[in-house]
Design a protein that fits this description.
424 residues, 16 helices, alpha+beta
Length: 424
Amino acid sequence: MEDRTILHIDINHCYAQIEEMKYPALRQIPMAVGGHEEARHGIILAKNDLAKKAGVLTGESLREAYDACPELLIIPPSYDDYIYYTEQVKDICREYSDDIEPFGLDESWLDCTHCRNLYSDPLALADRIQQRILEEVGLTVSIGISYNKVFAKFGSDLIKPSGLTLITRENYKQIVWPHPAEDLLFVGPATKRKLKARGIDTIGELAQYPLHYLKQAMGAAGEVIWQFANGEDRSEVSAASSRTAVKSVGNSMTMIHDVNSAEELEPVFWVLCECIASRLRDCGMEGDTVGVCMRSSGLDWMQCQFKMPQKTSLSQEIMKTAMMLIRERYDFSVPMRAAGVSVFGLRPFSATRQMSIFTDETQREKARKADLAMDEIRHKYGYYSIRRCCTMIDRPLTEFNPKEEHTVHPIGYFQGRKMIDGTV
């Protein structure tokens, strides 16, 4: 079987670069895009090269960033601008392939296997795309080229900014294997600790570790990262298409400050669940399985799900199930940094349904009418015209509109394949 040609395109320090493009003077000072500077809380979403040289790290708190660089300038995120410019980048990519899979706003995979008749040299193709994005949009991108998605992404991370890296079956052991195991896609801090406990420090050591013992220790996640290390990723570039059936509806949120309890998280989940319920109604669907994703301040991920006795598109029922999962599965001794909610098991909404003696249908109908009334008010007067009182307690934490502002941070590669209950 002939190898594919897959590109991974990464907009270098995307949010910060867009701000520098809008305001060139920002290139002369340490700057980062993040949370609320006045309140001194939130996290760093992106930083420019000067902030990076000063020791500022993406994902750290503003307090930690200021400790590293006291003169740091924090710019609040402008998601409308980020969406606009990143869509321009994707529009250029779509001229070369219909098979484009976004990975957040700033990254995309592109399957260009069919372009070989026009571009026999994949590096020439990548160089052409890179130059067009710079000339037509004004942004620098790094591009990795390989025969699978994992190595293509690895290649785009190697040289910043404006790097081009080709990883083949012939050279991947020389290029990929010497690097630390945590440089491999989805090897996070928790997985790194598990690997290190077994004497695995590099990707090459992971690739050569006996798979049987790795599966014993880490289950399915261990097998997946072993396959990644050996270049055996066979996943397709999943092109977004209006013809593709909707399998789930969900939203995620990276909080502007760590959350220390289920009670503190509850207002955020109300915002997410109201949005999900509204989107389900918009597409005439309902679902019977609620999944939640959680990321700790230590960047460990956990995912779990629960199947309800009946399908729903009610925000109240989605919220109740999501919070039940949080209380049962997450230990807030480690603060939470990000979370998401999704509804699976979708089918077209039906007004006729099997009645249950355990369900108060009168209360369900009241909840449905309340949801519809909120939809109508927001459509007519704007999203913030009506809000639950609990979301007003910590406004910076809950003042986001996931339905219109898009989900900026992807939940994870495994979503849509299989929910993994535990830390990856």
